[in-house]
Each structure stands twice: as C-alpha cells, then as structure tokens.
Specification:
alpha+beta; 6-stranded mixed beta sheet; globular; glycosyltransferase activity; EC 2.4.1.-
C-alpha cells in the first residue's frame, strides 16, 4: 500500500510517502500522491512510526459505507502531532485534490483562542445525516456532545485543514477522537470513516475558512461517485472527495467534465512512473 500525506510546513511543501509492502510497484491504482522506488523504502517501513500507527488504529476502526474508508492510514491525520513531534502548525491536504492558488494564503488563516483547526464549513448541509438514529435518539450523546461549542455545529470536510498541533496536543484531541471511535465499535453511531469523529469533537469550534479553499465533492457521493459541477464562487482548490476518482474515470475512458482539470497533474503519465520531489 502506498500512503502519502501532503503537508505544508512553511516555507516548504512536503509530500511524505511510505510503502507498506516491499514488493509494491507504483501503478495506476497507487499513483495518487507520489512515487517512490520501492524495495528499500518498503523494508524501512517495518520499523517506521506509521507501521506502529497502523497497528494501533486498526483495532479502533469499524466498518464503513465504503471499504476504502476503513484503511488505517485514512486516520493518519489524527496522529500528525505524534508523527511530527517538533512541528506546531501544518496545512493538511488530501491527495485527491489540485491547488490553484498560493497555499501561503491558507497557511496565514489565524486560529483564534483555543481553536485547533481551521477549515471551510458548510452549515447549509444536513448535519444530522452524518450520524445514525442510534446517536440522535440518545439525549446524552446528541444534545450534550455539542453543548458549550462557540458556534453552531456544521459539517466540514477533513481533507483540507489548517492544524495547530501544539493546541491539538494540549487539548488531548487524539484521545477524544479515539474515545468516539471506541463508542462507534459498540453502538454504531455513524456510517463513514474518519470524518464523523472529527465532527463530534470539533463541529462548532472550527475556525471558518473561505469556501474557495475546498471545492469538494467532485468525486460524487460515497455510493455512486457520480459527476458533479463546481459550487458557485471563486476556486482555490479542487477536491475529488467521494467515491469517484478522476484517475480511475480517466483510465476507464469515462471521465466527468471536471476530471480533465486533473489530467495535466496526473503523476502516472503514459504508463511511465514520474518522481514527485519535495520542494
């Protein structure tokens, strides 16, 4: 398995990739966020901190509406303060997106007070759909969970976040998210992967970012992955969140109109492996 995190540590963009299997070769399926030559990197992974993370988080993961969301490394964003112990602030980006603006503008978003993350919020979205009837029918969870939040609990997408890792550590947010994951294994309070526990811990306490920084949902929903158009307004970041991924649809010869915006940046070009260099 190839896993990559795109993290902006001012002034450098860092794309960190590791391989979980020494025999793995980069293919169309594994090209999403970078390419590494394989065997030596795979050998090192056996002792890598991500390997330990994978072992730890696997016991906390429950089944999801889409199997891809059950991958332990989808939960790595929870552990960035542990993986980057000397770093206090990052911009976290999923690997299924294209940035069309200066990411320094995103980096400069202030995190006021005790807020540990900043992200575009979507308060018009139906927040209730991210949790099951098991959650909403229990007053101890549905009402008390969001009491005392600074604002209205709203949906936000965890694929684009400014994160204050110092505040994260001080607030024990890793432990708080993991407690909800343990509840989920016992009571089935949501159907998605790593997103709902973020909402449970942070919704209502997120530093709002302009929507231009996450034109999300271009991969459709989590079941059909159908084509979607852009939201109204300016665009600084295109995000193919959802089941449908542009590289898959391009390979199948069935691209959505916006998938052609991904094609110039695809790392798998005409069957050749292309190295992604930290810069």
């Amino acid at each position: 398995m190839l896993f990559c995190m795109v993290i902006w540590l001012r002034p450098n963009l860092v794309v960190h990739c590791v391989l979980s299997k020494p025999s793995y070769m980069v293919s169309k399926e594994g090209r999403t966020a970078g390419v590494l030559d394989n065997y030596a990197e795979g050998q090192k992974y056996a002792e890598h901190s991500l390997r330990k993370l994978e072992t730890h988080v696997r016991r906390l993961i429950s089944s999801s509406i889409r199997p891809a969301l059950e991958n332990p490394l989808n939960f790595a964003r929870i552990y960035l303060p542990d993986l980057l112990p000397t770093v206090d602030r990052v911009v976290y980006l999923d690997s299924d997106l294209v940035v069309t603006d200066d990411v320094a503008r995103l980096w400069s978003v202030p995190l006021r007070g005790s807020r540990a993350i900043a992200a575009p919020e979507y308060c018009a979205a139906n927040f209730t759909k991210y949790f099951t009837d098991e959650f909403w029918s229990d007053p101890a969870m549905s009402r008390r969970t969001f009491e005392g939040r600074r604002g209205r609990p709203c949906y936000f997408n965890t694929g684009v976040m400014v994160m204050d890792l110092a505040k994260w550590r001080a607030g024990d947010y890793r432990e708080r998210i993991e407690r909800w994951m343990e509840v989920q294994r016992e009571r089935r309070i949501y159907d998605l992967g790593s997103l709902p526990p973020f909402l449970l811990v942070f919704a209502g306490d997120v530093e709002a970012v302009d929507h231009r920084w996450n034109q999300h949902g271009l991969g459709g929903d989590n079941v059909r992955g159908s084509c979607r158009s852009l939201h109204p307004g300016p665009v600084s970041l295109l995000h193919w969140s959802g089941k449908g991924k542009p590289w898959t649809r391009l390979d199948e010869g069935k691209p959505c109109p916006l998938d052609h915006l991904w094609a110039p940046y695809d790392l798998y070009v005409r069957g050749k492996r292309t190295a992604l260099i930290d810069s």
